[in-house]
Design goal:
- The protein is of the alpha/beta class.
- The chain has a single domain, classed as 3-Layer(aba) Sandwich (Rossmann fold).
- 29% of the residues lie in helices and 18% in strands.
- The protein has 7 helices and 10 strands.
- Strand 2, helix 2 and strand 3 form a beta-alpha-beta unit.
- The longest helix has 23 residues.
- The protein is globular, with a radius of gyration of 17 Å.
Amino acid sequence: MSLELAVAADAEAAAARAAAELVAAARAAVADRGTFALALSGGRTPWLMCSLLAAEDVPWERTEVFQVDERIAPEGDGARNLTHLREALPERALARLRAMPVEAADLDAAAAAYARALPAALDLVHLGLGTDGHTASLVPGDPVLEVADRPVALTAGAYQGHRRMTLTYPALNGARRRLWLVTGAEKREALERLLAGDPAIPAGRVARAAAIVIADADAAPRPARPRASA
């Protein structure tokens, strides 16, 4: 099964398309079930998408916003995804935001508590893509990749300087829809592998059904060149 791919002219257009997909998913979920459960990733890519939601008619009063992943770092630290979410999301969304409790003394208990707060199925999970093929904080070589019995777990080691709390494959694959936002030429190789379903990268193990990848022109795979005739 192939992923749906939408290519936008640039990063700004990709963010706008992703914001529109999110809004449409929110309205559909509220119409169908009365609530909308959203999970947002960190990294640098999503902040413009989040800021664009301020101008959209999102049913925030019926929405719960969860984090896909978070670095183990103090409140207000610039490395925290929460710090940037608070800067980017509209005020009405912040009241619905459930932060991952990464400041807890007992991180294993905190991860279990966050798992209990999740719905049986998230309506939409927003995902990014690293140049090494990681998504969420499911990073190459970490034992967290093999967690199959719970929706939230901790990485065993530090990645780019921090341990992480992250949604696991059961949570990502159990969501009703997945929205990938990928921008920048440095992501092109990883995106090609994701689109090919390469299980050797963490992102390649995420469910492909009910999923869309929105990429800018820099990240999008280049068309294959025709072979010269003999």
